[in-house]
Amino acid sequence: MPPGSNRPQIVLLGVNHRTAPVEVREHLALRDSDPPALRLFADLPLCEEVVFLSTCNRVEVLVSSRHLDGVKRSIKELWLKKGRLDPGTLTKSLYEYEGTEAIKHLFRVASSLDSMVVGEPQILGQLKDAYNMALKEKTAGLVLNRLLCKAFSVAKRIRTETRIASQAVSISYAAVELAKKIFGDLKDKNAMLIGAGEMAELAAQHLISNGAKKLVVANRTLSRAVELARSLDGTAISLEEIEDALLDVDIVISSTGAPGLILKKDQVRRIMRPRHHRLLFFIDIAVPRDIDPKIHELDNVYLYDIDDLKGVIEFNKAERKKEAIKAERMVEAEVIKFMSWMETLDVIPVIHFLQKKAEAIRQRELSRSYKVIKSLNDEQQKALDILTRSMMQKILHDPIICLKKGAQNKDGEIILDVARRLFSMNSSNEE
Known about the structure:
The chain has 16 helices and 10 strands. It folds into 3 domains: 153 residues, Glutamyl-tRNA reductase, N-terminal domain (Beta Polymerase, domain 2), CATH 3.30.460.30; 142 residues, 3-Layer(aba) Sandwich (Rossmann fold), CATH 3.40.50.720; 76 residues, no CATH class. Helix 5 packs across helix 7. The protein is of the alpha/beta class. The strands form 2 sheets. Strands 7-6-5-8-9-10 form a 6-stranded parallel beta sheet. The radius of gyration is 31 Å and the shape is elongated. The longest helix has 37 residues.
């Protein structure tokens, strides 16, 4: 920040999954505080604007302030008091960014470059929720509004122009992506889940989002199968009914915790003739395995297990890292652009003063003219108003351009000081 500048600065303090264990993140999230965490930070005297982000993997406070050291100190004091943490733990876990580094960090977070799984989409939605809460509570103003909107724009551009999110890096997602490679399109396909745990539920959501026509859920505990099937608009069956259900499905994803095989080669062989040997695709993501490996020997039957998927995932993670390099370059460029805008903040009050002073002079001189030239009708007065407004805007155009450009170079403060003196900015005399 140039000497004499009093523009607001951006500060970000926080912890994430790399710097702090979950028990520390829970303390800093201040979920049970009254008033809520956002309001606590907003009420700190030196916080002009604030956005508070709290997820399972990170807790961050984003602030606009003219007093960097003071605002950082007050945020840490609040966290120590309300989060009931000892100073050593907070110091060891906390990262602090100012100015360019704070902007860069936010853009990386929004673009999921700082996430546990690079390219995951959830963080952008969580950041938007945090911003919407700040809008609702009126804790975000000129600087953070502009910053957050730019962060969302950067994230969208990175997802559009790179393949950072196009490779499957979760077991459930990879399973469905593999099914798409086999069938090409899942829109007219029927699927069966064997097991009703978290992995099965995630796989089901991916199947549905990719257009699977019908979903069958088989589980040892029928009530759990019914519960999951109802939430997914599917059909529930018991494990004993699996063989019959295989007649009508195309994709089977199995993820039970059973100690032995759920489905054997002979069972699948029996149903292939009545199926007219239509393609049948099995993905076994259970450990130990649910499906007999010998099933793969049958014609028109494909079987993949969790080791096959892990190979796909490791390859995809490497591909995401390559795309992340492109994304990092894009972030760097956008940070430079945003900092250029930040550097114009000092000039905005000068430009507003100049425009306001010129308009006051114009209105005063018009009023005097109307008194002297009393014969002017309404249309003539309107024409004179347009003429003088146009003249004022043309006269101010070059000085305003000079001020904006000057704000972005090393002589910016000198140019601003000259403008203040030329137009008597510190004087109340408008004559």
